[in-house]
Amino acid sequence: MQQKIIILDFGSQTTQLIGRRVRELDTFCEILPYNKFPQGDESVIGVILSGSPYSVHDPEAFKVDLSQFVGRIPVLGICYGAQFISYANGGKVEKADSREYGRANLMQFDADNALFKGFTPNSQVWMSHGDTITAIPEDCKCIASTKNVKYAAYASTKNPVWAVQFHPEVFHSVQGTQLLKNFVVDICGSKQDWSAASFVDTTVAELKAQVGNDRVILGLSGGVDSSVAAVLLNKAIGKNLTCIFVDHGMLRKNEFRDVMHDYECLGLNVIGVDASEKFFSDLAGVTDPEQKRKIIGRDFVEVFNAEAKKIEDAKWLAQGTIYPDRIESLNITGKVIKSHHNVGGLPKEMHLSLCEPLKWLFKDEVRRVGRQLGMPEHLITRHPFPGPGLAVRILGDITPEKVRILQDADDIYIRGLREYKTKLSGEEARRVLAAGVPADMKDGEIEVSLYDQIWQAGTVLLSTVRSVGVMGDERTYEHPVALRAVTSTDAMTADWAHLPYDFMAKVSNEIINKVRGVNRVCYDISSKPPSTIEWE
Length: 536
Ligand code: XMP
Known about the structure:
Blueprint lengths: L3 E6 L5 H10 L4 E5 L10 E6 L25 E4 L1 H9 L3 E14 L2 E2 L14 E12 L4 E6 L7 E4 L4 E4 L11 H12 L8 H16 L3 E6 L3 H14 L3 E7 L7 H11 L4 E5 L1 H8 L5 H22 L3 E5 L4 H4 L26 E3 L7 H10 L4 H4 L19 H20 L1 E5 H9 L10 E5 H4 L2 E6 L5 E5 L2 E14 L7 E2 L4 H14 L3 E6 L13
Parallel strand pairs: 1-2, 1-3, 3-4, 4-10, 11-12, 11-14, 12-13, 14-15, 20-22
Antiparallel strand pairs: 5-7, 6-8, 8-9, 9-10, 16-17, 18-20, 19-20, 20-21
Helix pairs in contact: 4-5, 4-10, 5-10, 7-8, 12-15
Bound molecules: xanthosine-5'-monophosphate (XMP).
Xanthosine-5'-monophosphate binds next to loops.
């Protein structure tokens, strides 16, 4: 039985990060809404209660019946989780005089407590809370304090319960990973057997059992998730898997050809459908972004279905859905803000069942599984790319000529990002390595391409705008392109990437000199929110 840690989500922004940290300890975990603890599940070896945007005193605050697990399995409360455990057991939680936010140091801690094994004096931790614990329950003892926070951590003397008001999951808690390891491995007894290799073995066996000799259809997009799902299924069921890859004409330069080649080298049974003429003709003259998206979505379903129907005895539809797509993150109103989206519109008469082999994986784990399966690195480290493709990166109506201009500019930009390498150390290096980028650490530094340092990059053609320029002795009156590059962990929020000036100068020159139709290059310095990653 696969051991697992349950993380109960009280709506904190860092809940997924807790999950990632636990997985980095080669331990499987599930993030569930605060009130969905799986009672009776014998595979649960520990529970972590997350932070929350609420105060325990708010009438709407999320509350949980702790008796479901306290005394049975080890519990760790983080921030709100720590305050809630105290509040629910007769301790006191009050508004802090001033919001406690930022770095602090554990001036005193109980070095004999299992939670602090390996901790060094004055360890830096990260605080972020408006309330603070002013009294702990009777059967608890204080196990760490900072200058301003007396009960930075406490533990029960009766039950296996620990609570920390700081956030061990964030990078600024320097020994946070050690603390989580102490909890997950030493206290909960994780065998640390969750790895890419074990995932591949178990999943291939499960897929064989689930699908048997049935035929499976899978829609490939060229992206990491659907590609890894396809290779995994191919390993399990071979030729009973048929993949469909639709070219809507708005992919990156040569992408359809290159990716088809990759898929064929991987031994996949792929039907490539060039439907670009249909898409271009249906999009002609359409300028409204939502309208464009609707037309592309509708056409895509039509083309995909027409191909899928040809595979008459198909029983399953496989998708590259990954874990963050399914986690029911809670926002402050308790509403689900991101939920599972199935492929809509498949004909009902096909009666296809859904098969989602990557549904438990975070993105970095999908990449590790891809490597385990021997997939080429350029396929694994690919940036996300929107389903409607370059259509949402061309402002105004779409024509094949505009797509050609954008493809050429984008190709220069992306190639440049892949070629330009910089050295990273400290927090930056750790962020990149945690995202699954393979790089060797030498003297505390790694050398990584700009492409691998960022979440996503692309070029936008402002085809509704023209500006004057001069080339040689000629006046030009052409379109600008905007370059976009962002850092992110999940695309829900994003920061614009601080690309080196010499890189931007080189790319700008090359685009203006080589791409006919473009005479100006801008760099998009907007973050999400309030902007979005794509322009349309
Ligand atoms: P935004 O623009 O909303 O994008 O900040 C967030 C992430 O989603 C990608 N994206 C899409 N992906 N179909 C997709 O498969 C779409 O229609 C779509 N629109 C945006 C975007 O590239 C970014 O990674």
